């Protein structure tokens, strides 16, 4: 099979729709001048997608699946002046979570989204994403890859970091919780203690939902008791328990020292989440229940959660993420910088967002690249003392190692 790297267009003129040719020519004539006097043409002349399969340092287990490698879709947007912006389409372990996969994302970007981009300016993000909504419903993970690539290309053209486009960074780092997966208790405790000794992370999240609830609850309480006084422990059930199971076991988890419960029941059952939130003495976090700003509004109306998990992937990019955070902040809910196990491009975008958005006030899980066996950047993201640092430099502030990208591109 041919390597999964596809160049959608080498120049804006390759776009076949005559109706857009005049607009493209007009846009080519519009130049953005920086303070240095250098002219930058922001016209989008190329879109490229690449599927990678990057091995992990250990299997990562979810409620319904496990993965030893993470598939990523790189989306590259190239301007007439030569700026290249990157975005990332990624879901946590495949289509089980939200229905998308790297394969479906690639098809949507190539056939339906790229024609909307070509000939437009990279800084015309609002109009571009509005027009994409008219031809592609849902598919927020794919749209996030495109939207973030546009931000990266625009910021690089201006020689400023992406967070400048979001209002500027008010902090230079953010706390990072480490996900310990769904392994046996002894294995989890050993891993947690090694991480604590290295001072890499100081809080942990455990996956639940893959085992019998009784066995799973005993396992988590054993881990929580072993780490008591050393680290906070929260759990993520990935929406796999029904109401009666949750009513039976969640109080036991809270009594056992768990500090937060993430999405115990199906995402569309917000009234059940609200019932559980009223019952529990510890915070409840909504993840699968919040995939749009309107979902956040419904969680607020029903008082279904205390914290909302903000994934720039599931929400369709940086702008819809900001809208979702605004709803939560207006209601006094906290927001957590969550992850879809992104690679370094997607993680860097979420770090820029979290460092520019005061509403991300419940830490983060932006650990994705630490789970990867292979480094994809020339200079890795910096993790230490329980935090990840905001990258410096234009755009997302990171540079891909193209040799590594080639190595792990799908054949």
UniProtKB/TrEMBL annotation:
Residues in coiled coil: none
Cofactor(s) in the UniProt record: Mn(2+)
Domain Mandelate racemase/muconate lactonizing enzyme C-terminal: 185-283
InterPro entries (UniProt xref): Chloromuconate_cycloisomerase, Enolase-like_C_sf, Enolase-like_N, Enolase_C-like, Mandel_Rmase/mucon_lact_enz_CS, Mandelate_racemase_C, Mandelate_racemase_N_dom
Region annotated Disordered, chain positions: 1-26
Organism domain of life: Bacteria
SUPFAM superfamilies reported for this sequence: Enolase C-terminal domain-like, Enolase N-terminal domain-like
Pfam families membership: MR_MLE_C (PF13378), MR_MLE_N (PF02746)
GO biological process: amino acid catabolic process; menaquinone biosynthetic process
Composition skew (Basic and acidic residues), residue ranges: 16-26
SMART domains (UniProt xref): MR_MLE
Pathway linked to the protein: Aromatic compound metabolism
Example GO molecular function: chloromuconate cycloisomerase activity
Sorted UniProt keywords: Aromatic hydrocarbons catabolism, Isomerase, Manganese, Menaquinone biosynthesis, Metal-binding
Matching NCBIfam families: mucon_cyclo
Record family assignment: Belongs to the mandelate racemase/muconate lactonizing enzyme family.
Protein name: Chloromuconate cycloisomerase
